[in-house]
């Protein structure tokens, strides 16, 4: 339905299937003259890659990004970039579309595409599609860095294990290192252990578990966004809900704001060394749909992956019989650790679009 | 910025200011031949109108919608509808843009529009702008009714007072009546009382309070939406975050899904009288971005209104002095009761766009 | 069908009907801080107004533009502008939709809108709709003037009477004055007389006549546009064909280029006082979809108005009988003189969109 | 600048460069369940391919389309199709960007992309990019065939040799065969000979020549399109001007309509065997921006290719010296014969978008 593009000025178009030849992405609207850094892209893909640790899906994919267009003499040209990842390790034998997996896409895919969709490995619905988002996100992040803007996400909770501490990405390198060392991508080493144990425990039981991701954006300039339909929240939420398994998003205090009084929630303005700030940031860096200059902060809820090996009741849609179903194959017991870089990517893609539209990043980089 | 339109096939364009001549809306993409029912629009506007009860802003606005175009012989023509509401009761004397109101739009408006914005009554940022959304929503709902689709929202919580019961809108008329009788637009009469007391109590203290709204859509057909960028959640969230004061959205079990195991969260499929269903609806009627045919359900978090009469610390951005500020004027202590119809409106607008794009509602109604 | 908007960054939305309450336009994306000059708009509307001379339709419309939103303290605010013109002089008694007027919209309107369209005075199909374009065009021109860009159109031909001379708008004021004095809006006084006689002659015979308009843009910066889908020609042609009665457009040498050899058509580059130029401008200021810095030039073909008083053969679509039809009412024998300002308007609207998108005009004017 | 997509519901995205790895196209919005026919695509590509005859560029490209995504079990899935053509025969040694070729893109590319564009073989500006259009066009044509709609283009003129006869594609197969046999893609064998001689003569002189293409669409249903911004002409012209070398477009009588009286130009309606028709088709099948049901007809002006071997005066933009330049390499003396299939492709792409948006072609083909 021409639904595979997002963005106005920095527009990405996704293509490819989980068990098809490739996963791919077109990135249109990149300024000309940007150093093309495949290593940087590859480094981001590593964070999303399956089989990166004991607690991720064992499907072995190296996820090597190959550029097909848009680069000349090592730099972007202003033309659209196309990058593909060739699929390597897939076994399509176990998929059919008539035994409906609970909370899985079999039925909706049938209704939407009339039985013609490539259902192998969930096809276009696969989390694997987000590898393309990560490629585009790596480029978007590189553009944001031109204005010294950083995006950082981490695992805030897995199941009921929460890390409620506030972190600041002013010391970004430390946080990156700590997160790197945590297989669940948490920032508190003790909680990380507990979360890891939790994931291993559900994995052992062939079950899965959900969690939440916190995303923070530093140094985003004030005055970007707009009231109503082009608010930062409208566009960020649209981008974030494009990631499979996301069930909720909240900005600043989010759902907790609903419990508060105005006198508690309001963020007072002060001058701190000539710089206008708020004394706290319950607004999450956005008021009236527009950035305040304080860090943009939001939380994302991720559901437990529906692919579990436990026996579940369901139906065969062809025979209309009740069936019992166990989902085989290579699956993640908890998608949160691999999703953090995808959240960062979609955030970067959405925010760079605003900055390009507002002329805050030029269309030729010299 | 060309940011004042939303929708592809059913597109609304908002204009007007809180203290300007009018608030207005253009609705483009309405099928030809629809009975134009101004009463129905007016009835919806009543639910959003200020001064409708003791606990809403006393600004007295009759909010009479006047059609300027798009209607002929009492029916829509296929041409764009323009409707305006003339502003009546406003006092612009109290507004300036240099004494920053905490968590209010003064500063971001200055940054975005360079001091040229109409700041009276918050101008384009005012909740009053949503009167136009309600007009368009009334028309979108009328189109959805052609396919027997209903949308119903209610106050799920105010502050910490929650109504966690599940309601079904199969008996929609009862619910409408009960909600009508509740000044806070809740469905449980006892909780409604408590919520009302809470609002009155913060009002007395010149403070404000947040809350949550639950929205339910019945009879929405399965197979609508899409994976990734055109998912139902992506588009609904974009529409809902266009409403001022919204800080979060969650679909189905939402943030609670993050606490759950797959074996708990997954919704088993069954045949119930030949009809395919799920035994529960933790997915909130959406899987893989596409409707399942079960009710679509989501919650919306509303922050406490920032306009409070309590003294707050802030700054004068011109003199750079610290100031103490009390916000005078006519304000709502809790915007939740007036926002429920706006949530319904933006939901209807978003969903009717999908149905028109998919050809599920024809472009000529005979 | 949500078809009534054009533009990405500077977007106009048209509404209203020929014999409805109003003709209106929304202009979204105007930078904040622009002086709002209603006189300038009104002056442009005068050039389009009916009853401005003996050879235009006698329908008497003052065409007074009334702003409803988007202005504060005499300046634009960054919010959408809405302007309306109230319709005054119309007589709807003569219109029906069953006696098909040859080369008129009756049949296509029936097919498109199923009989629900407001057919009075051709409703949305009326040339009167372009009054809104002229309003938006006046504002777009004002923005272009910030970069010293001028747009000028004139009548190049009526029927077979052609003015093939090349004019330069470096002496724009002279041209404006000469055009002002010509009721057919031609630049050569002798040819103007002949054209006027031609129009009067067809008018006397209750017939009509076509013509061509030449449009020139001076000082448009080089490097704007793009290859393929976002070429200047693609967007300008889309804008120009939005004007009723346009049947062709050609850039630079246009159709004559098809007769030429490359050695004749190619424009050699030279330095003229340090400035890069071409020795001639057969390319019409556009190569590869992008501006060269030379004047942008194109011709527009206008068909004879289909509303003629001469008896024509046609059918009654209800009874399926052959009929003879004479079109009564107030019509223009030649729409070319009134269309020149509409061509300028759509050109300005299209070009300002490019400049805003490329950051060549800032979003706040100080 | 995110400019490489066109279409709303059937959207194509172009990528790749003339001398890069690939030329590619994404096609989003194809209904699910369409037989994927690579032969049909290849057959269309043959008509655009260089080195297809003595009078086309000798660059030897087989132009083999390779699908990367969107196909499963030989059918479309509803997911985006990506097809690429690997570039084979290119010699990039002769290109630089400082010696400006007259009427060529060197200068505008420098201005637009700041010297970072891939200038080899004109990069993104190359006519080679249109191979992707032809791929998408082949698929669009296949969808149009579902409604029995045919598109047919032919060479109407080369230089001053014109074929003014009217052809009807009711006997499409004959026309296809005749065109196939003509190396210049003309329909009159005698004129074809003359045109071929003309091309050979300019080729011998290292010069080039322009021409015109006539495009006809049969069986397009009435009632498609719209007044003003979404008119058929607006969208078709936008699509056609996306083809390099196009300098003009005219619908129906086009520029000749400007010479006519209303009484001559108007097309009378009649019933012919119960079917509503016009006795002639000077409107070219479109009135008020909407299809009448008569054949859609338009002419396209193609300029002489700027790459000629004759010595031309120009400048070196680096040294600012006057230079004399002869363009070496493999070029077409007349691009018209290879462009006819590109005109058909862009027409098909534009029209299928309308039909899908209006629900005239379903989103699932069974």
CATH superfamily of chain A: Chorismate synthase AroC
Write down the overall geometry of chain A.
Answer: globular
- Rg of chain A, Cα atoms, Å: 21 Å
Percentage of residues assigned to helices of chain A = 25-40%
Write down the secondary-structure element order of chain A: EEEHEEEEHHEEHHEHEHEEEEEEEH
Q: Which sequence of strands runs across the widest sheet of chain A?
A: 1-2-3-7-4
Strand and helix layout:
The structure is a homotetramer of 366-residue chains.
Chain A: E1 5-6, E2 11-16, E3 22-28, H1 38-48, E4 65-69, E5 71-72, E6 75-76, E7 81-86, H2 106-113, H3 130-145, E8 150-158, E9 161-162, H4 172-181, H5 189-204, E10 211-218, H6 232-240, E11 246-251, H7 262-265, E12 269-272, E13 275-278, E14 286-287, E15 290-291, E16 296-302, E17 312-315, E18 322-325, H8 336-357
Helix pairs in contact in A: 1-3, 1-8, 3-8, 6-8
Q: What are its keywords?
A:
homotetramer, 366 residues, alpha+beta, Chorismate synthase, AroC fold, 5-stranded antiparallel β-sheet, 22% strand
